[in-house]
Amino acid sequence: MKTTLIYAGIAGYGFESLGKGMEAGWINHGLAQLAACAKAQGFEVDLIDLRGLTGWDEFRTELEQRRPHVTGLTMMSVDYNPVTEAIAVIKDVDPATITVVGGPHPTLVLDEVAANPRIDYIVTHEAEITFPKLLAAIEWGQPPQERVLVGERPDLDAIPFVDRELFLDEWHKCGYAVDSPEVPFVPELPPPFLTIIAGRGCIYNCNFCQPAERLIFGRFRQRSVPNVVEELKLLRDKYHFASFMFHDDCLTNDREWVAEFCQTYKREGFTQPFFCQSRADIIVRHEELVELMADAGCRGYFIGFESGSDRVLRFLRKGTTREVNLKAAQICRKHGISVWANYMLGLPTETQEEMLDTISMLKEIDPDYYSPAFYTPHPGSDLYTYCIENDLSLIASHDQYRRNPTETKIKGQDPEFLNWALAESQRRKPWNAFKRWARRNWKRYANPRKAWQKAKRVLVGG
Ligand code: B12
Ligand code: SF4
Fold this sequence. Notes:
Layout: E1 2-7, H1 22-25, H2 29-40, E2 44-49, H3 56-66, E3 70-74, H4 80-93, E4 98-102, H5 104-108, H6 110-114, E5 121-124, H7 130-139, E6 148-150, H8 164-173, E7 193-196, E8 199-200, H9 212-217, E9 221-222, H10 225-239, E10 243-246, H11 255-267, E11 274-278, H12 280-285, H13 287-296, E12 298-306, H14 310-315, H15 322-334, E13 338-345, H16 352-365, E14 369-374, H17 382-389, H18 415-425, H19 430-445, H20 448-460
Parallel strand pairs: 1-2, 1-3, 3-4, 4-5, 5-6, 7-10, 10-11, 11-12, 12-13, 13-14
Antiparallel strand pairs: 8-9
Helix pairs in contact: 3-4, 11-13, 16-18
The structure holds cobalamin and iron/sulfur cluster.
Cobalamin is lined by residues 9, 11-12, 22-23, 26, 28-30, 33-34, 72-74, 76-79, 100-105, 108, 123, 126-128, 131, 197, 209, 212-213, 216, 247, 249, 378-380, 401-404.
């Protein structure tokens, strides 16, 4: 029995987008994890990644050639339209092909997904145990009677490591020339670069995110440090990775875990730099942790600063303040950790003055990377419910469930002001821009080895 997993993450960059940045150059851990679990039980599993295809015609041809018995599709809210289209093509090619859907959207908005009669099974929550069980039942000719299966939560140390080759082999076939398993995105993280996940869930309660995360993953839990380091060792042997990043929602939730990880990482001889997500309040409360992480190789934090207004931060249940945000950025700078600043504009209840507060905060933070979003109400979060109850949402298609600051998502906002705020929030103060320019050039020309090499090139030619 053959199972084909399908990654339909084309809502952003479309077909033929492989390698174009993080959205189109990273593996999907959910599917790679399910493939590893199904293969461990002896099932044959392959992948079609729509990002590597030219269009729906090629998808149809692939299905006609592969003829899977079962297909498995993952779905964030933003993937709803391409997944629905993919399922229509699957059933058109062969109505007997079994379609299974899982991921955040089916878990959070089950009714909407269940309304599609072309979907044979929906697995909610986590599926490492339930998906292979479903495959086994289908193979034995005893498919479950119920259509919706609630996934059992796995012990994260007991499941196999993600099957990266599922994606990498398929990408090779699509002609993607890979000099790095996954696409690097910042100079601090050189290729070969890859992504890893150490745990699931989050202990915090931000209203634009929760309770969705808790619904999908339950309580926060992490793989043991030896388990993560064992995977890193295998990845070092196989891909000789030069850098990596943790996808975890907030890697620094558990300080003891982080301290143990940093010690073990160094002891095992790793020197590769990495990035992870953290929070401003954790950074400020535990500078010693930042120091420890920097010493182990952490070169960047993704930080959800979100807003420069204390009232908005309270409204978001963020658990931070403007002052804490500013202090966190200072601490990062002190320890040589780059700051990737996530923030939102155009939030419900937010005034233009409060957006100006966010702009002035960013000018003080002077982040290494700006990651602005126009607030987008995501199903499953309390702020989404607030937007629906107050008739604020402008989302007319699932394709708009992207936070990218391209269009206003909330009623009552002035798009012209939002676009101005977006541009202004990313404009550095002249003094900050000068300091950055000077640092860059110092690094480029003041290094004696580099200067000597450049001089040699000029003198000798070539
Ligand atoms: C890494 C990540 C990314 C990466 C990589 C995405 C990728 N290539 O997969 C990047 C940065 C590119 C990204 C982008 C976006 N992301 Co994102 N991302 C995550 C993050 C942090 C981890 C995802 C992950 O790997 N989890 C671990 C795996 C094991 O879990 P999983 O994928 O959910 O899979 C399990 C189950 O869901 C289930 N399952 C999943 N698929 C299937 C399929 C079948 C057949 C079955 C049976 C079961 C099943 O079984 C799996 C194993 O237990 C999650 C938050 C989180 N902690 O999960 C957000 C998250 C998934 N992202 C989210 C969002 C909103 C986005 C963006 C829309 C943001 C934006 N730019 O606007 C984009 C959309 C990208 C696109 N498709 O176009 C939301 C989704 C919310 C929703 N309602 O859909 C999440 C939940 C974050 C949040 N709390 O808001 N993201
Ligand atoms: S936004 Fe980040 S810190 Fe807040 S609850 Fe979600 S994952 Fe946790």
